[in-house]
Amino acid sequence: MYGGQAAPTSPAGRASVPVPQQFPVQPQPQPSVATTIKPKKRKRLLLAVLLPVVLLIALSGGGVAAQLHRALPAATLTTEIAATMKIPGKLPSIPWPSKGSAELLIEGMGRIGGSGDNDPEPIGSVAKVMTAYLILKNHPLSGAEEGPSITVTSADVADYNARIPLGQSLVPIAAGEKMTERDALEALMLPSANNVAHMLGVWDAGSQDEFLTKMNDAAAELGMTGTHYTDPSGYLPTTISTAADQVALARAALKDEVFAEIVALPSATIPVAGKIKNYNDLLGELGVFGIKTGSTGEAGGNLLFAAKLTVGGKSLTVVGAVFNQPGAHTPEQLANVNTVVRKLLKSVRSFVKEYTLLADKAVGQVKTAWGSTVTVSPAAALKVVGWPGLAIPVKTTTTKPASEVTAGQVVGAVQASDVRVDLSTDAATAEPTFWWKVSRRP
After folding, report:
1. How many Cβ atoms from other residues are within 10 Å of residue 437's Cβ?
2. DSSP string covering 320-389, please?
3. Whole-model pTM?
C-alpha cells in the first residue's frame, strides 16, 4: 500500500520502488594559504615584506637621496711591522785570535763582536792615538793647513838622546828646528816617534804631567773605563787599555778629517828626519786606511785599525783592534797581529752583505666602514746591509686613507737604515651596497 493506495506497478506488473528526492551537494570550503601558515611565521614574513617598504616610505621625500649622498666614513689602516727587526740567520764563526783580545764594529751599524777577557793590558804605541786626538782637538787643523810651528828645544834634544839606548821608536831632531803641527803629527803617527809624543804633550799643556791629566780626562769623557795613561807615547807598561776602549777612541778620532788623512799616509817628509815611513804594513790591503801599530815586550803586537768596505753600493767603515799578540820582537809581533787582522777582515767581507729584512708580502690591511678589506704590502722587498742577527730599527709611517682605496695606492712607507720602501694596497676595496648606504645610522 502506498498512501492508502496500491503501489504502482511497472509495466511488467511488478511494483516500482519510489526514488527519494536528490539534493545538490555543496562544495566544502578549502583553507586559504594564510590559514595554513602558523602565526609566528606569518609575522616574520610580513616583517620581511613590509620593512623595506616602511623604510623606503620613511626615507621618501628626499630622505633616500640624502642617505645616498652622505659622506662615507674614512677607512682604517693597520700594520703589523715591528719597531725593531733582526736580519734573519745566524752569524758565522769569526776567526778571533786564540790569545790576546779583539774588537770589531762597523761605524753607524753596530758592534760585530769581540774576544778575550777585556782586562786592561799594556798597549804600546797605540797610546799615541789619544795624543794625536787631543792635539787636534785643542789645536784643530783643516784641509791642507800645516798649523803653528813648534820649535825644538835643547830639552827636547836631551830627551831624544836619552831614549836612544832604550831602543825606542824615534825621529831625529835638532835644537832650533821648527816643525809644524802637521809635521809633528806625521812623525807621531807614521814612524811612531816617542820623542815627538813628549814634545807635543809639553807644547800643548806646558808639562808632561799636565798633558797626562788631559789624556785621562778625555778617556773618562769617552767612557774608556779600562784605560789609564802614564805617558803620551805608550812606551811604559803602566799605560793600559782594552780593545773595546781603543775602538771607542778610534771612532772619535776618525771624525777629524786631518787625523784620518794622516794615519792613511804610507809616508811623509818632515824637517831634519826627511822621509818617514808608516809602520802600518796593512795600509791599502783589504781596504785598510789606518790607524796605529803598537809593540813592546810587555804589550806584544797591537793594531788599532780602520778599513773601508763597499756593500750594496754603500761605503762602510770597519773599526777594530787586535791586541797583545805574541812574538819575540817587534817585527814578529806585528806580523802576527797583521795575520789575525787579515783573517778578521776577510771574514767580515764574507758575511756583511745585503739582506732582505722585510719581504714584499702583506703586512697590514685597509678596512672600510662597510667591512670591505684589502691587504697592504711593501711595494718591493726592504733590503738592508748588515749581518745575520743584527737588530735594525724600523720606522713605519702611514697616511689616513679615505673611505675607499684603489689597487696599488700608496698608504705609507717603511724605512730601515737609509732604505725606504712604500706601502701600497694589493687591491681596491669594494663599494658599499645600496642597502648599507640607506640603512646606516646618521
Report:
1. 16
2. EEEEEE--SSHHHHHHHHHHHHHHHHHHHHHH-EEEEEE-SS--EEEE-TTS-EEEEEESS-EEEEE-TT
3. 0.81
